[in-house]
Amino acid sequence: MKRLALIAAIYAIALGAAIAGQTGSGPTDGRQIFRFNTFGDEQLWTDTLQLHKAVQSVSPAAALNVGLKVDVEVLPATVIDALKAGTVNLNDPAVTVQLLALNAVVGVIGRVSATGALQSIGITCALCHSTVDNSLAPGIGRRLDGWPNRDLNVGAIIALSPVIASNPTAAAVYTGWGRGKYDARLHAFNGTSFIELNRSTLPVVIPPAYGLRQAGFETFTGDGPISYWNSYVGVTQMGGHGSFSDPRIGLSITQTPDLVTPALPALLDYQLSLRAPDPPRGSFDVVAAQRGRQLFNGSARCDMCHTPPAFTDVLRGPSRTVPFLHAPSETSMEPAYASRSATGKYRTTPLRGLWQHPPYFHDGSAADLLAVVNHYDKVLSLGLTAAQKTDLVEFLKSL
Fold first, then answer.
1. Which of 76, 179, 345, 382 would be a feasible disulfide site paired with 325, CB 3.0-4.6 Å?
2. Environment class of residue 65 by beta-carbon count within 10 Å: exposed (0-12), middle (13-18) or buried (19+)?
């Protein structure tokens, strides 16, 4: 009876939630777009992948296990109290559906019928580029927009699709990505079908969407300014109903009406407002960090590429529209991913908020900041002592 009463309470509140206007062309406010606008990508996740059929039977525990997050600020007090008391059955798929009806699952928009049937699923920018502060429970808390969700197993979620699950070879590709990674170069969706971009997959870590104001180019390979990548992802990866074209990679998709392009300016404004998070109090050695700063700007020569204030040199190009990039061989970076991009090179990664999102490098090959320092010490023949490496790590943690 408690279970039925709880679900009834959630559903009653969900019926009054203002879900209308949060999909399709939807809101013009950047935060609303980032959090709630699917750009009509239900054409991929519902019509093509039929993911809503699988999600209908996914429990909250299973959803949290693949890294999905719950926004505590939209949960009714009765549900919060029940979660604190441990009386919510997190193994009940019906609770998942009602959380979707409340718009409480970060980055996922579900349309639920009056009978409690999940009729459609769409995703938003927040799915990959937001997390929560775990203030109520692991995976349940206040939103942290711009923080990469390194718990999110996008491939495992895609593999839930009955269309993908019916093809073991395809399912293995997606489940092989792992947590916090995604391959945006594997294929593109044109509104009805997939276009193969590469024959094999090469996932990279989900990057932060904060601290971009002075960065200039947000992708690992500097393919274009922020709105270029928002358009690429919104149309070709999220499956939004819109248009994208880049002759450098031989890709052109046209869909009318275009629900993505008109939202880009407001989306950009919101992303540029997201500051990199300050390091937690007491999380680094202040004195060691001061020594590390001197090394960073001195004998270690880090500032030659990681130039303040954004700690990147990507804007050193001939104009603000042309990125300054580096060949993979310059710093012994993995070259295959760059070869799949429009530039064939890598930008210098901005360092603000670095403490928050391990692992590092585009492929996640550096597990922690010491691994990053060790990589450059070896490649650039810096000859750093163990103490100097420690000081550099403390400085990087302070940014």
1. 345
2. middle
Which range marks the domain in which residue 365 is found? 286-313+348-398
Alpha-helix residue ranges (DSSP H) falling in the chain: 2-15, 30-36, 42, 51-55, 60-65, 77-85, 93-101, 126-129, 154-158, 162-165, 168-175, 226-232, 264-273, 286-296, 336-339, 369-379, 386-398
Residue 77 has which token pair? 């007090």
Residue 336 falls within a domain, yes or no? no
Amino acid at 107: G
Q: What is the pLDDT of residue 202?
A: 98
Residue showing tokens 């009056």: 114
Question: Does residue 320 form part of some domain?
Answer: no
Cβ(295)–Cβ(392) under 8 Å? yes
User: What's the distance, CA 201 to chain centroid?
Assistant: 18
Per residue, the 3-state secondary structure of 23-36, as one string, reads CCCCCCCHHHHHHH
Task: Give the domain CATH number at 306.
Answer: 1.10.760.10
Whether pLDDT at 142 is above 50? yes
b or e along 205-216 (b: 16 or more beta carbons within 10 Å of the residue's beta carbon)?
bbbbbbbbbebb
What is the percent of the chain with per-residue pLDDT over 70, rounded to a whole number?
A: 93
CA 240 → CA 28, 188, 211, 214, distances in Å? 16, 11, 25, 28
Q: Residue 108: pLDDT above 80?
A: yes
Q: The whole model's pTM is what? A: 0.91
Average pLDDT over the chain, rounded to an integer: 93
Whether residue 200 sits in one domain with residue 303:
no
- Asked if residue 237 and residue 378 are part of one domain, the reply reads no
Higher pLDDT, 161 or 318: 161
- Residue 107: inside a domain: yes
Number of domains in the chain: 2
pLDDT at 15 over 60: no
Cα–Cα separations (whole angstroms), residue 281 to 145, 210, 397? 21, 20, 11
For residues 15-32, average pLDDT: 54
Asked, for residue 125, whether it belongs to a domain, the answer is: yes
- Confirm if 385 and 339 have CB atoms less than 8 A apart: no
Mark whether 295 and 228 lie in a shared domain: no
